[in-house]
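The freezer alarm interrupted the setup, so I double-checked each line after restarting. Inputs confirmed:
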Amino acid sequence: MLYIKNILSCILVLPLIGAFILSFIPSSSRSLLRSVALNCSCLTFVLSLFLWVFFNKSVGTFQFTENFFWIPILNLNFSIGVDGISLFFILLTTLLIPICLLASWDSIQVDLKKYLIAFLVMEFFLIGVFCSLDLLFFYIFFESVLIPMFLIIGIWGSRERKIRAAYFFFLYTLLGSVLMLLSILYIYYQVGTTDYEVLLTFSFSPLEQKIMWFAFFASFATKVPMVPVHLWLPEAHVEAPTAGSVILAGVLLKLGTYGFIRFSFPLFPEACFYFAPFVYAMSVVGIVYTSFTAIRQSDFKRIIAYTSVAHMNLVMVGLFSFNMIGLEGAILQSLSHGFVASALFLIIGVVYDRHHTRMVKYYGGLVHTMPIYVFIFLFFTMSNIGLPGTGSFVGEFLILTGSFKANTTVTFLSATGMIIGGCYSLWLFNRIAYGNLKTQYFKHYLDINKREFLIFFPLLLGTLVMGVYPNIFLNSIHFSTNVLVESMYF
Amino acid sequence: MRIETLLFKEIIILPELFLGISLVYLVLHSTFLAVRKNYPLIQTSILYLGVLVLFLSCLLVLNDGLDVLEQSVLNDTIVNDYVSFFSKLVIGSLSLFCLLMIQPYLINQKINQFEYILLILFAVLGLFLLCSSNDLLTAYLAIELQSLAFYVLASFKRNSTYSVDAGIKYFILGAFSSSLFLFGSSLLYGVTGTINFEEFKDLYVNVSPGNNADLSNISLVQFGLVFILISLLFKLAIAPFHTWAPDVYEGSPSASTFFFAVVPKLAIFVLLLRIFYYSFFGFFESWRYFIVIVIVLSIIVGSFGGIEQRKLKSLLVYSSISHMGYALIAFSAGTFESIQMLFCYLVVYSFSGLCVWSIFVLTRLKNNHLQKQNKDLTDLVSLGKSNYMLAIFFTTVLFSVAGFPPMIGFLVKISVFLTAIESSMFFVVLISILCSVIGTFYYIRLIKILYFEKVLVGKLYYPIQAQSSILISFLFFSFLFLFINPTLLYLFSYKLNLLVFTTV
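Predicted 3D structure, all chains:
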C-alpha cells in the first residue's frame, strides 16, 4: 500500500494549505472564501475516511507512521502515526470542522476570512495533537490550540463578557499545562528523547511517577474539565460563537481524556493506580455537582455546558476503571459525546441565529412552529440522557459495567448522575418544545432549512449507528486498548 | 567566503579600527557640512553613511571570524575568538536594523540631528570592544564608552523634562555601578597583581573557595567578584538592581530606548561569561546561589510588575527584566549545554525585542496634536483594523516573547529550563514556569487590545515606509523559519560554547 503511505501527513497539512490559500483570496468575495474553506475541510474528512478504511484492525500498534527530522542535535524529531484510539478522534475532528463551517455559514458577519483561517489552523493543530507520537510535539500542538480558540472566543464572541471568558479559557489551561511542560522536560532529561515509542519502554521510579502524573493531571484535568477547575468551561461555552462551542465541546474536551489514555496511563501506570481513588472522588463529585448545577441554569448554553462536564467526568470514571470494558466504553462515550454535545450546541445555534437570545424563558412551544427542529432536539436530548439505541447508551453502559468491576460505590454514585441527567434534559426539552408559544417575545418562527438539516444529519446518523451497531467502532479500538491495558498491568 | 584581497586579516581589531576611524571622519564631515548645508539633509546622509559603516564593519567581522583562531593583540588586552565574532555580528546586525527602523521616528520627534546617529555608532564601537575585551580595564573602558553614549541618547530630547530626567538618572546610577566595577577590579588587582583574564585563569585554574589554604586572598577575590557581578547585573537591569530601568526607559526617546533595550544585553553577557566562566570558573559554586536568588527575584518582579502597567514602554521594561532572569537561569546552570542555550536565548530575545520595538516605533497615530509617540496600551486599539498584517506580526512576536508553543520563543525557553533541570534547579524552574504564566497575562492583554475591543473612536496610523515594511516582513519570515528549522541556531551556539569551555 505504497500510495496510501503518506495519507496521514496529507491529512495533517491539508487544512494548513487551505488556510494558506484563503489568505490570498480578498475578503470581499465571501462565497468564494466559504466554499474554499468548506471544500478543503471536506477533503480532509474524506481523506481521513480513507485512513479508517485502510486501517489494519487486527493489530494494536501504530500505523501510517512517519518521521521528520526537527532538531537532530537534541534528538527531537517529529513523528506521527495513528492507532485505534487516536483514529476516531481524528475522524471526529475532521467531521466536526466542516459542520462548524456550515453552521457559521451566515451568522459570521465580520472578518469572515480570519474566522475561516482560524478554524482551519485549529483543525491542523487538533489533528496534530491526535497523531503526533512525540511528547514534546504533543505538548506544542496541545498548547497551540489555545491561540485560535482564544481568538475565536475573543473576536467573534457574542457579548462583552467574552473577554473575561477568553482570559479564563487561556489562563486556566495554560496554568495547568506548564506543569506538564515541566515534567516533559524532566522526562526528556531522564530518557534523552521524547519519542513516544521509546518512552513506552522506559519505567520511572514510583516517586517520579507520582509527581509527574500529578503534573500531567493538572493539565488534562483542566481540559476534561474536573470539578474545581471546570469554571472556565461554562464561561467559554456561553461566550463563544456556536461553531466555537461545537469544537470546544466536541474536540477540545477530548484532548484531556485522550492525554490520559495516551500518556498518563502507559507512562505512569503505578501512579495511575495510586491516584485512582482520588480521581474517582473528583469525578463523582463532578458528575453529581454539575448535574445539579445544570438543573438551575437559565441559559440554554450553560445547561448544555454543565452536562458536558458531567458526561466527561463519567468518561473519567470509565478510564480509571483500568479494564478493557471501561476503557473502550470511555473512548466510545468520548466519541458519542463529541456527536451529541456538538449537536446540542448546534441546536442552540439554530434558535440563537433566529432570535438572538439563549435565555430559556423566552422560548416555549416550539413544537407548534418548528416540528423538524423539535424532532432533532428530542433525538439528541434522548441521546444525552443515554436512551438505548443511541451511542451514549452504549458508552455509558460499558463505562458503568467496567467501573462496576473496579469500584461498585463509584458506579452507584455515577449512575445517579444519569438520573439527574434525565431531569435536566427532559425539563429543558419540555420548557423549550412544549407549552404555549410565547408570541409576546417573538413574532416570527422558522423551521430549520436545508443547510441546517445537512448539519444535523451526519451527527444524527453517527449517533444512531454508534448505538445500534457499535462494533464497527469497537473492533478498531479493541486491539489498541488491549495493548494499553497490557502495558499497564505488565 | 574570506575576502583575501583585503590583506588586513592580520589586524584582528580591524572592524573596531574601521568603525573608529569612520566615526572620526563622520564627525568632521557632519560638523563642516552643518555650517553650510541644510540640517535634515545632513541627517539623512549621516543616517545612510552610518548604515553603510555598520554594514562594512559587519563584513569585516565576518572576514576575521571565519578563521576561528583565538588571537590576542595590544599586549593581550583585546582578544578575538568565536564568541566575540558571533556577538559582534549579532550586535552589528541588530544595530543596523535599529538604525533603519528609527529614522521616521527621529524625523517626527524633531531629534534628527546628526549627533544621534554618531552616538549610536559610538555605542556600537563600545559594544564591539566589550565583546572582545580581555582584561578588566579594557572592559571598563568599553562599558564606559557605550554607557556615555547611552546617557546622551537618553537625554537627547532636550526640550522634554522626562528625557533630561531619564538621562540624569541613567547617568548617576550608571556611574555608580561603573564605580562598583572599578572597585571590584581594584580588589582583584590588589590580590593578584594582574587584570588580564588569561592570567586570572592561569592563577585560579585549580583553585576554588573550598579547597585552598590561603583563605584570606580567596575571600578577597570573592569580594571583588561580587562587586563586578553586581555592577554588571545593574547594567542588565536584573531585579534588585532594576529600579532605574522603568524610569529611564519610559523617559528617554523611544528610539534610544529601542536601542538600549535590545542591543547591549548580549555584550554584557559576553563579559559575564569571560569573567565568571573563563577566568573564575573555580568560584562557580560561590556566586551561583547569589545568582539564583537574583533570578527568582527578577522573574517575580518582571512578571508581577508588568501586570499593572498602562504604558507600552514600561510593560516592555518589565518583560525584559523577566527575560533577563530567564537568561540568567541558563547562565547559572554551569553546564556545557547551558551556555549554548544562553546564546540561543539571547539571540532570540534580541530579535524578538527588535520586532516588538520596531513595531512600537513605527506605528504613529494620526491626529495626534501633541506629536507624541503612542504611549498607552490602548493606543494600539485599532491596529488590528487598520493594518492587519502588522497586527498579525505583532501577535506572533508577542506569543513568541511569551514563550507560547508554536513559536521560537517557546523552544529557547524550554531549552533554558531543560538545562536548569539538568543541574537540578527544580525549584527555580518551578517558580519561573509559574511566573511565566502570569507574564503571559500581560502579553495576551496586548492581543486583546489589538483584536477584541470595540473601537468607538477610530484612531488612524500613518502609513509605514516601504523599507521598514520590507525589513519587518523579513523579520517575520525569519521568525517562522527559525521554528520550523531551529537547527541553525543550535549549530551556531554549539560552536560558541566549545570555545568557552575548551579552556576550563
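Quick read of the result. Confidence is low (pLDDT under 50) at residues 1-7 of chain B.
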